[in-house]
Amino acid sequence: METTSAATRSLATEAVHAGREDLAALGLHAAPLDLSTTYPSHDSRAEAARLDEFAATGARPDGPPVYSRLDNPTVARFEDALARLEGTESAVAFASGMAALTATLLVRAGAGLRHVVAVRPLYGCSDHLLSSGLLGTEVTWVDPEGVAAALRPDTGLVMVETPANPTLAETDLAAVARACGEVPLLVDNTFATPVLQRPRESGARLVLHSATKYLGGHGDVLGGVVACDEESARALRQVRFATGGVLHPLAGYLLLRGLSTLPVRVRAQSATAAELARRLAADPRVTAVHYPSVGGAMVAFEPAGDPHEVIAGVRLITPAVSLGSVDTLIQHPASISHRIVPEDDRRSGGIGGKLLRMSVGLEDAEDLWADLDAALSGRRPPRPGAERRERIPEPAAL
Ligand SMILES: *Cc1c(COP(=O)(O)O)cnc(C)c1O
Questions:
Q1: Whole-number Cα distances in Å, 275 to 49, 191, 270, 291
Q2: pLDDT at 389 > cutoff 60
Q3: Distance CA 337, CA 328 (A)
Q4: Residue among 50, 60, 114, 123 flagged as catalytic
Q5: Which of these, 137, 214, 239, 398, has the minimum number of CB atoms within 10 Å of its CB?
Q6: Is 69 a catalytic residue?
């Protein structure tokens, strides 16, 4: 019988097995969910030594866990699996994508490197976190070609998102990585996922995900993660312990489960998205379609008519912010996901008032097209009760 070594396994195999290799030896099939906040120990000398070691190095503590803000075995399984999928040494999970970005910025600022060079567009709240200087950082916005010229002695990070939220603009990662020199490049890989793009292979030092999106994949878990080298991971773990933006163990469990179907979901959703992008591009009711060369399940387009009417007209497709779920979502970035970015900055990032962003799910392509077609035609009567905002009664009151 042939054996496969972990080093040569394909992504689809890793997605199902990474982070779970010890389960059979434990007599388990599903990963255990450890909800303990604390762990009893009669050996406080050994606990003290583990705490000292963590404070000194940031390495994941050996031996029994001490406290769940420091380390959790269920979350660790998700981190190990994601690191394998991204091809990085380590990964550190957080309560949300924004908590992951916050920790990354704090690590760099803590080293006295408060300046960030970033390329627009970014996810709206990432843009806001950098622009507001809330964490004491200062940002210089540039085009990808302007990265090298914008670097300063106190530059701690270069940040890009590709394909970018919401325009799906793409950046040549290898070129930007070269321009960064010694400064770490952070790539937000939420849209492509490691199924379509592994930024580490292009020279990115830090790969960020809103795990809320494709990694979870079912719209029921909030999380974030940074895949990186172990040295960066140690600093991130220390900041996570100090600031408390930890991933809940149940979220870690759900994210690990989500990873096992990530390759199948992303490939199936991408095939449908590519087909819808083709049809939209050929449709006279649509003036522009954005679909990345790397593929993926996100499509952005600009209707000739009122984009708000398209949102009001969908029935099968859910009009909601967020993305990456098994069902199709659509939203108007200028109103919702990028509302927090000032209008001029939205414009310069290519986020016009007509733009709609659609996250394509696992429904049948023909059913989705029928819904889009009707929404674009404006044929839809107002939804019954659409003007009423009454609360649906609780089941007990029915
Ligand atoms: C949603 C999103 C984030 C923020 O993640 P949360 O999990 O919502 O905090 C960051 N980057 C991108 C590209 C996103 O789509």
A1: 57, 18, 9, 10
A2: no
A3: 16
A4: 123
A5: 398
A6: yes
Are the C-beta atoms of 246 and 68 separated by less than 8 Å? yes
pTM more than 0.85: yes
Residue nearest ligand 1's atom 6 by CA: 97
How far from the centroid of its chain's Cα atoms is residue 282's Cα?
Answer: 30
Burial class (CB in 10 A: 0-12, 13-18, 19+), 374: middle
Per-residue pLDDT tens over the stretch 198-210: 999 999 999 999 9
pLDDT, tens digit (0-9, with 9 covering 90-100), for 38-60: 999 999 999 999 999 999 999 99
Ligand 1 neighbour 165 (Cβ under 6 A): yes
Outline where the chain has alpha helix (H): 11-17, 23-26, 44-57, 73-86, 97-110, 124-132, 147-150, 173-180, 193-196, 230-243, 249-281, 307-313, 343-348, 365-377
Reply yes or no on whether 354 is catalytic.
no
Contacts of 55 (CB under 8 A, 6+ apart): 238
- pLDDT > 90? residue 216: yes
Q: How far apart are the CA of 124 and the centre of ligand 1, in A? A: 9
Domains of the chain: 11-36+72-260 (3.40.640.10), 263-381 (3.90.1150.10)
Strands 286-290 and 298-303: antiparallel
